[in-house]
Amino acid sequence: MPQIWEQGRPTRRQLIFDLSCAAAFALLIGIVYAHVGLAQLGVVLVLAGAMAVRRLSLPAMVLLGTAAAVIQFAHPGWSLQLFVADVAYAALFFVLGAHPRAAVRRFGLVAGGVGCACLLVWMTTLVDTGSSTRARVFSAGAVTAMAVLVCGGGWVAGFLRLQRRRSIQSELDRVEQRRLAESYEHELQRSRVAADMHDIVAHSWAVVAAQADGARYALRADPDATEQALEVIAETARSTIADLRTILAELRDNDAEQSTPGYEQAERLMQRMRLTGMRIQERRTGDAAGSSLIALTAYRLLSEALTNALKHGDLGQPVQVEQDWTSGYRLRVVNAVGAPGDGTGHGIIGMMERAAISGGRLESRQVGGEWVVDAAIPDPQRSAADSTQDAKESAST
């Protein structure tokens, strides 16, 4: 997924912003401390440098910030003089709290905790304010509380910003995943519609062409055969129009009822192919399964296999069709190879894709003088039951 706030080199706008803030801090705070002393002004400039490189180099920021703190610890008399300049530590801890790496965030917490603890001890034991012990402890606690507020507040603000960005990124990731899922679904629908269109058009026009040629030859010699051929053409055209209307309705409305030819359509398909003059030797084993997916897949595979036999096979020899419903669906279509045709191979590829979508396989090849189509589609209910049983056995072991 694309990341909006990826860690990398800062942009030119970010660098200009950081340098501007650092320059403003050095100018405004530097003017205040220039009258106090040059050493104090040096601490201000070191903090300004840390602010300038906070996005450019994290180690350099930490090093400069630590150097400024060490200088202040080394001069106990500056404890209350630089409290205005110490506001810069909030910006530095903000960077640590907003960092995407957990190790850096933990480092910021530890560094802030250690620094505040050292400040408390340092203020209590080393800074001589000339006051009583109680007043010294109170002063040390007040200064330490301010330090905790500055450092901890900066870290918490940065961490909240990081969480907000992650929340936005998570929402964008969900939107992107939804978009990709919809795009994938649309692509699957396009592929399914394209396969259906190919099967319908290829089958219907193959039947119409065969019947038209037969009717033309038998027009005068056998009027009855001509009439039968025209009836087949008309019935094929009506069936094709109905299928195309259903597909077009699916394209216009995703909630429309999908075209799912079943077992009755497969029977009419066999009758229609016999009327073209194709001799079909059919063998069926078992009862047809109740799965609509298997019914649709079986119909499309049988339709494409018989259409290829009609277009490219030798109709002088019978076409052998074997369908086995005992375990899922198995199809075997064997026809004699005729004269080489001008097929593109899209039909065979479409059959393989249909079988793969249903979790099965299909092979289409020439064996000697015959063309053999072998397909095996598993029963989805039985496959689900087998998966559940395998899961139970794995859990028990």
UniProtKB/TrEMBL annotation:
InterPro entries: HATPase_C_sf, Sensor_HK_TwoCompSys, Sig_transdc_His_kin_sub3_dim/P. Keywords: ATP-binding, Kinase, Membrane, Nucleotide-binding, Phosphoprotein, Transferase, Transmembrane, Transmembrane helix, Two-component regulatory system. The keyword Kinase applies. It comes from the Bacteria. Its EC number is 2.7.13.3. It catalyses: ATP + protein L-histidine = ADP + protein N-phospho-L-histidine. The chain crosses the membrane at residues 22-49, 56-74, 80-98, 107-125, 137-160. It is an enzyme of class 2 (transferase). One of its GO terms (molecular function) is kinase activity. Residues 190-254 form the Signal transduction histidine kinase subgroup 3 dimerisation and phosphoacceptor domain. Residues 376-397 are annotated as: Disordered. Pfam families: HisKA_3 (PF07730). PANTHER family: NITRATE/NITRITE SENSOR PROTEIN NARX-RELATED (PTHR24421), NITRATE_NITRITE SENSOR PROTEIN NARQ (PTHR24421:SF10). This is histidine kinase. It comes from Flexivirga alba.
